[in-house]
Design brief:
- This protein is mainly alpha-helical.
- The chain has a domain at about 65-190.
- It contains nine helices and no strands.
- It is elongated, with a radius of gyration of 25 Å.
- The mean pLDDT is about 85.
């Protein structure tokens, strides 16, 4: 099956989980900020925004996983070319090598199987790699496909060019992995900061009943809480932008 990695589709399990998560989140916000059932209905559209956000996160994780797996492909492909295999047979050798690392239902193994099938249908390897890059939208894969096609078309030293390109892409992926590791603790801190405002409201409502009553069920209180909610959501968005480091 041909997969377009620029568009993520939830599985049935993910659909149920993320829908329930979004409903719980909207219910909690409606209770803590407004203590009104009507406010929960008013905030219902946030369910779609939450699901859209989760879809982007899942898409990003899928692309990152595919990028990591593709790193092993180009290293194996480079080794096969260096051993004297033609580009087409080198791709088949890479598939055989990666069978020891990945399961048959992994993203990269399914893609390699599909690419080999295309080669057997007399589609050029340049076109196969180009199609793969377009479907993934991953810069490293697109760049590799372009370099590969140029080197093969111009009759250059394909083995050397692919080796240099694969090393460059591998180094880039390793750097990104190190950055992700370094900021993982900061992401945890950011996640804790996201729940602190809600935690404070919950604590005050639980331990001091009536203390926050002036902020509920009146125009002034609703206005204040709405402004605070907007500031809270903007702060979350800013934190996410800061953590989203591109390499």
């Amino acid at each position: 099956m041909v997969v377009n990695y620029c568009d993520y589709r939830f599985t049935r399990k993910e659909n149920i989980i993320y829908t329930l998560q979004s409903i719980c989140l909207i219910g909690m916000i409606g209770y803590l900020f407004y203590q009104s059932v009507l406010s929960i209905l008013f905030l219902a559209p946030l369910v779609f925004i939450f699901r859209k956000k989760k879809k982007k996160e899942c898409l990003k994780e899928q692309k990152w996983q595919l990028n990591l797996e593709f790193k092993d492909v180009i290293l194996s492909l480079s080794a096969a070319l260096n051993a004297g295999y033609s580009p087409e047979h080198a791709l088949e050798e890479a598939y055989k090598d990666l069978k020891h690392l990945y399961k048959s239902d992994s993203l990269i193994m399914q893609e390699l199987h599909y690419m080999i099938q295309q080669l057997h249908m007399n589609i050029t390897i340049e076109k196969v790699l180009e199609d793969f890059g377009e479907r993934t939208g991953i810069e490293d894969i697109i760049s590799f496909a372009e370099v590969f096609a140029t080197a093969k078309r111009t009759g250059g030293d394909l083995v050397h060019v692919i080796k240099v390109t694969s090393n460059t892409i591998s180094d880039k992926i390793d750097i990104k992995r190190e950055i992700i590791t370094l900021i993982s603790s900061k992401k945890l801190e950011a996640n804790i900061m996201k729940v602190i405002p809600q935690g404070i409201l919950f604590y005050l409502n639980l331990t001091s009943p009536g203390y926050l009553d002036p902020l509920y069920h009146n125009v002034f209180g609703v206005s204040v809480m709405s402004i605070l909610l907007i500031i809270y959501l903007l702060a979350i968005k800013i934190m996410q932008k800061i953590m989203d480091i591109q390499v």
